[in-house]
């Protein structure tokens, strides 16, 4: 090849690579509710008209983040613009924060409903399109840790001048008025200016510990475009605890579940020894032996599979105003909570807030013995490990029952590692409860407890 031709070809290749690497890219499933972080594809994963949402990717804007600083909001911020279209229908999304890896934006109230294709333009470079779903209402509750789970952003109303943020140290009491911060309650007349106060037409319900609360207001927060306030009164018989579950239903769509602290007199919340250690911070270990029975129903019949695990989480937790770990921050007795995350809980563990506070601790290998059987495994030191103890899978041609966690007495031993000395403990596996209506799970009688 002629040297000049080769040089031109090389320059063209390098230019193409530079353009490719500098191209804005929206990640798959990278469009989520700004408050709940729930992605598209689930009932609460739609982006409501007039709501705030987040776009994740690379090369989406300036390296140093830039926020919109004044009203009216514009369709371009620091050279970044966003369009959402459905065939001939197209709207300009309002960016409120732009950076290389993340954009926070406001979906216009006149956006067409249904599936839309969204693109980001940075200068003259345009991103890949990503399909998202626009809904009339799709509520998300803001959380103190910014993950969509754990303590919600709620304020205890004491007086107009005193409305502290709800924390375990600043708990609410039954019957108290609470302000909850959210997004996704629906459209308004003008998204570009500071919104006016007033109830939105979307019907809104609030549930605290499974009990319906009295809603007093549900509309825009006058301070902030795309941001909603829901004011409600706690039930007089509200459950008490450090992590009482709270969620909102707007129309037929249910939000993420967050938590709040409630005590009988509004005094600081008291928890059990492990949860109290979480609040103080420091080294905390959680080891939970568990048996998982799965009934697989196919056209060929029913298959019952069994797997025994030892769940381990050994970490140096960071203390803070909003302590939370889904494995330790349990809801009050008689209530239940819910988490949404990506992936398979038993393989990827992509649950919110399972990151270690400071670092994961090494305790070496674990051995479980009981009922004449012994099983060992070495933990992979990640925020949460499920160590396989044994299983029974009748689908295998030479199925062998290696399960170990039958009801009875067991001993657990840890070899010890760099941060955790060797230790042993005894525990008893209790018999499983009898699930009489297991195959009728789709029919739920809400009148029952």
Main beta sheet strand tally, sense and closure: 11 strands, mixed
Compute the CA-based radius of gyration. Answer: 26 Å
- Distance between termini? 80 Å
CATH class label of the largest domain: Mainly Beta
**Structural domains: how many:** 3
What's the total helix number?
2
The SS-based structural class is: mainly beta
Q: What is the CATH topology classification name of the largest domain? A: Immunoglobulin-like
Strand share of the residues?
35-45%
Rounded average pLDDT: 89
Judging by the overall fold, what is the CATH architecture of the largest domain? Sandwich
Q: Estimate the helix proportion, in percent.
A: under 10%
DSSP strand count? 29
| Large-scale geometry | globular
Runs in which pLDDT lies below 50 for 5 or more consecutive residues are 5-20
């Amino acid at each position: 090849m002629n040297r000049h031709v080769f040089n031109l070809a090389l320059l063209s290749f390098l230019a193409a690579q530079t353009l490719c690497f500098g191209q804005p890219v929206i990640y798959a499933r990278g469009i989520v509710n700004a408050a709940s972080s729930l992605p598209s594809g689930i009932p609460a994963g739609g982006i409501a008209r007039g709501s705030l949402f987040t776009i994740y990717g690379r090369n989406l804007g300036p390296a140093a983040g830039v926020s919109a600083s004044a009203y009216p909001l514009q369709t371009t911020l620091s050279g970044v613009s966003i369009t959402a279209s459905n065939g001939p229908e197209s709207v300009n999304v309002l960016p409120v924060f732009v950076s290389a890896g993340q954009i926070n934006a406001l979906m216009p109230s006149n956006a067409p409903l249904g599936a839309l294709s969204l693109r980001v333009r940075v200068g003259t470079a345009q991103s890949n399109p990503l399909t998202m779903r626009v809904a009339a209402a799709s509520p998300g509750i803001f959380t103190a840790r910014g993950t969509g789970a754990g303590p919600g952003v709620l304020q205890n109303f004491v007086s107009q001048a005193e409305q502290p943020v709800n924390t375990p140290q600043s708990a609410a009491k039954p019957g108290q008025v609470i302000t909850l911060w959210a997004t996704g309650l629906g459209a308004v007349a003008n998204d570009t200016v500071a919104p006016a106060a007033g109830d939105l037409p979307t019907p809104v319900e609030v549930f605290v510990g499974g009990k319906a609360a009295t809603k007093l207001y549900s509309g825009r927060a006058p301070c902030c475009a795309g941001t909603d306030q829901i004011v409600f009164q706690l039930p007089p018989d509200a459950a008490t605890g450090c992590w009482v579950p709270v969620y909102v239903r707007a129309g037929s769509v249910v939000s993420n579940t967050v938590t709040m602290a409630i005590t009988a007199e509004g005094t600081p919340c008291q928890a059990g020894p492990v949860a109290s250690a979480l609040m103080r911070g420091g080294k905390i270990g959680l080891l939970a032996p568990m048996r998982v029975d799965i009934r697989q129903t196919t056209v060929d019949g029913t298959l019952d599979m069994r797997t025994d695990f030892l769940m381990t989480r050994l970490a140096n937790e960071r203390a803070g105003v909003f302590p939370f770990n889904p494995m330790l921050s349990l809801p009050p007795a008689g209530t239940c909570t819910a988490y949404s995350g990506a992936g398979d809980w038993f393989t990827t563990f992509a649950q919110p807030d399972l990151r270690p506070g400071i670092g994961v601790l090494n305790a070496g290998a674990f051995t479980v013995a009981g009922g004449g059987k012994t099983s060992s495994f070495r933990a992979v030191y990640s925020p949460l490990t499920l160590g396989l103890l044994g299983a029974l899978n009748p689908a295998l041609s030479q199925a062998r029952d290696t399960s170990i966690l039958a009801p009875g007495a067991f001993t657990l031993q840890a070899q010890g590692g760099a941060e955790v000395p060797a230790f042993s403990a005894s525990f008893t596996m209790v018999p499983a409860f009898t699930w009489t209506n297991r195959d009728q799970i789709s029919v739920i009688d809400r009148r029952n407890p």
